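Hi all, long-time lurker, first post. I run a small reading group and we've been trying to get comfortable going from sequence to structure in the token notation. Rather than ask abstract questions, I figured I'd post a concrete chain and ask someone more experienced to write out its structure so we can walk through it together at our next meeting. Sequence below, copied exactly:
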Amino acid sequence: MSPKAPMHMALMMDISVVLKPGASPTTLIHWIRPYLLSENGSLKSTNIAALVPYMPPGPPPGQTHNYVVLLFEQPLNFKVPDSYKTSFANITTSINNRIGFNLTDFTEATELKKPVAANWFRVSTPAQSSIAVNPATPSPTFSQGTSTSNASQVSAVVHRMGLVVWVLATIGLCDYGGMFWSG
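-- Answer (accepted) --
Happy to help. Here is the structure in token form:
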């Protein structure tokens, strides 16, 4: 693919997954969407599929997790290394094969530089909630304060959406919330 305008990649990950009490937090990859076309200050989606299909946030009951959304400019020679192609091809709706994503290794392997935009948000699931996520219908509805999904029984409090709303809105996945930061 030889773009006329810069291409970008959006990535969302949970940075606060604790697999067992007392263990250090690890990561969980929620979404990697390459080949976002940037024209006149707005992002447009291309017809190339996500490297990692979107999985909505859904911490276990009684937990609060921290999520980051990063936007990278893709190098002109962008190529997904074979080792990642294999691993991404096996990504499912299970969290088990999304745990432990190493962002540093991925950015080095794909020659991505520092993010051009970034933001974070926090999602809490009340202790009495049960989670039933079906990412086959990833159509979350975002609003300031609460995040729910048609495919989920998650009642999650979103403390800050920022760039995630902006990125998802610019590629047509949700209504624009009006907040973003880039630098």
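A couple of things your group might point at:
The beta strands are 7-17, 26-39, 42-44, 64-73, 117-124, 140-142, 145-149, 156-158.
Residues 133 and 143 are 19 Å apart (CA to CA).
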